[in-house]
Model the fold of this input.
Amino acid sequence: MRIFIFANFLAMFAMSWDILSGRTGYISFGHPFLIGIAGYTTAMLTYHLNWPLYITIPTAVVTTMIGGTLFFLPALRIRGTYFALVTLAFMELMYHSMQVVQPKLTGGTRGLSGLPTLVSGAVPNYYLSFLVMFAIGVGLWLLIRTRLGIALSAIRMDEDAVRSSGLNTTRLKLFAFMVSAMVAGIAGALYTHYLGSIAPRGIFEINFLFTILVAALLGGAGTIIGPIIGAYFLTFLLELLRPYIPGAGRYLIYGVIALVLYYYVPKGLYSLFERLRERFFRPRPDPQSD
Done:
């Protein structure tokens, strides 16, 4: 059951990354920065002030949206590799800050543990994580079918053309980022209380970032169901490799597998399922119609 729970959370993280990077084409390497803001906010409020979770989790989500926007807003005016590098710098800044700035507050390198959980037991945690993942997926699915969602996809195709049509692309990207931050905040806060602890190494390590990106890209960037498929695929792949390849070697192996699959299925596993569905379930023309 633990495997399914992690897959649900990874799907939330991947959808959060995808609504910004998969939709607009602005590749972010700093998504753990947003997850960390939410996780540390709710962790510190519950650990030091003993606030109830129904207050700390919404507070963490709002803090993630506001704090993330203050940092990322200047970066939204740059493109390509520079945007990716700036977002990566934000993650590194957060990683070192949580270790050396006010270690009594953040727990330093060890982090904070003994945090309260929303529910106890594997089955309740599975249903909670699944329902939240499902709600986020439905919400994003409805969003991308609005004019705003269509405009975000247009930015990925040709941002200059979108700007020349009279739309404010900076505001559109800011909107995408705030939605992304909201989803990351929800998932990050819930994940922290599912684990009952948070530490810099667990949130800001490069393997965690790599897993989120690969889940979204391998499943199918720019879709809603794609990141969910990718999250489940990677989670079960890691578990299959665990008995045979210890430690970080698993990430190297699944990275190679992911690259091979991405090379042969560049639009993700979701596109493969779509092609199979069209091939085997497409209505055949009636021969008598002629």
